[in-house]
Amino acid sequence: MKNQLIDWPTFIGALIILFGVTIPLILFPETGAEVVNIANDFMTGNFGVLYILLGLLALFFLLFVAFSKQGKIKLGNRDTKREFGTFSWAAMLFSAGIGSSILYWAMIEWAYYYQGPPFGITPEAEESIRYAATYGMFHWGPIAWAIYTLPALPIAYFYYVRKKPVLKISESVRPVLGKLVDGPLGNIIDVLFIFGLMGGAGTTLALGTPMITEGINDITGLPVNLLTQAGVMLVCTGIFAISSYSGLQRGIKILSDANLWLVIFILGFVFIFGPTVFISEATVSSIGILLNDFFRMATWLEPLAQVTSFESTLFPESWTIFYWAWWLVYAPFVGLFVARISRGRTIQQMILGTMIYGTLGCILFFGILGNYGLFLQLSNSFDVIGYMNEYGAPATIIEILNQLPFSGLVVPVFTILSIIFLSTTFDSASYILAAVAQKSLEGGDPLRWHRLFWAFTLCFMPLVLMFIGDLQTLQTASIVSGFPIIFIMILLAWSFMKASNKDIRASREYRAPTIYIARKNDKEG
Ligand code: NM2
């Protein structure tokens, strides 16, 4: 019986939490929102420093692993070929890990920093403009990608090196927790991950849907209201459900490739038809500021505001901690996905590839799209900030695009790209959720109906909360739901080191020919 493959305790546990959160929010929206906000203030206010430390530690840990003995371990046997070429690999990685939110934030994030900078800088002053273009790159930069990559290590290691056909977070912490993983603790770990991801995905949908609907409004004149937004959400769900159903080699790969070409088109278009020289100079300068101030940004908290009369800007809580938490809830999923597509690469290639391609890709988005908007503002061609404060961010994003020549072409392409970007994250997410809620993967893929099921489940909570008018609560909830993942990340790193060190030691004594250390003159698969 195929259904025996389902890991029922995890499956049902995840649904219980989903309904356990959604139903009270429907029945008591105001009290619900209040509770979520209190929980959020408590977490970010008291444990913000944990998020900040986790980010830094993840970065150092990965760099250490990449250049240690572990880095040379090949994910597979001596003759294992790479499953995907580097182009498709990078495209799939980026498309899975990054969704439509990058279009949203790359276009508009600078405007928030411009008005509310960190480091005690005066808003809208010259210095705040310089940081405005840089901070987005930081929040989508090396630390963020390190958070994404860390879970991939143990997962890929157990899947391809120790050859356990299970794609599960709980399975990856077995070296530390031992047999406990087979009991309720294992289910709890998987359920926490599923719940975190549903929260993070909810944030993505909460941001993406209004932006896509504004785009459609601009093209067709269809109004932006609850009904059209719900329609957009359902259409997107339909698209990623089909893609996930058709699987990794077809739907997910085709959409990822299409995604990449459209990205090249949009970025190229804005770069060429926008202020090319300004964009180039501002991007390069921002990279400089990023490198120069990296650790200042990575550790910026506001302890003084707690004991002195210095004003607290809430910048760390609203941005860096929020972002790390958001990357964190996606991280085990991206780790599972990166692991799944990395057969035949070495650990070092997987780590450096993810961090370098990921960061560079994000820098391009923020450099080109962000600096275009900044240029409009500074050159007084379009008052982005004024427009945003009046009509909100999603409408402003579309209005910025309307300042470009051939906007009749750019807005539709941008809108389609947002839909595809969203879908390429959610198809992989439903694929991975199905894998985690299964005992094992027969034939390498989770069951098809099971993938469809998770696709619709992902959109359930955002859809319901949209109707009670509270997507904001959802965004906040997603952050709260990610808190336990901090500890799961530590377990994941520990497990990887424990297992790989043991195997390396054993293979030195020729007792375990299970790991294959890639050598310099090996042919690439
Ligand atoms: N991250 C990258 O909405 C999305 O683009 C998916 C968001 C975690 C900020 C991921």
TrEMBL record:
Coiled coil: none annotated. It is a multi-pass membrane protein. Keywords: Cell membrane, Membrane, Transmembrane, Transmembrane helix, Transport. Signal peptide: none annotated. It is found in: Cell membrane. GO terms for cellular component: plasma membrane. InterPro entries: BCCT_CS, BCCT_transptr. GO terms for molecular function: transmembrane transporter activity. The chain crosses the membrane at residues 7-28, 48-67, 87-108, 143-161, 188-207, 227-248, 260-291, 321-339, 351-374, 409-437, 449-468, 474-497. Belongs to the BCCT transporter (TC 2.A.15) family. This is Betaine/carnitine transporter, BCCT family. It comes from Ornithinibacillus halophilus.
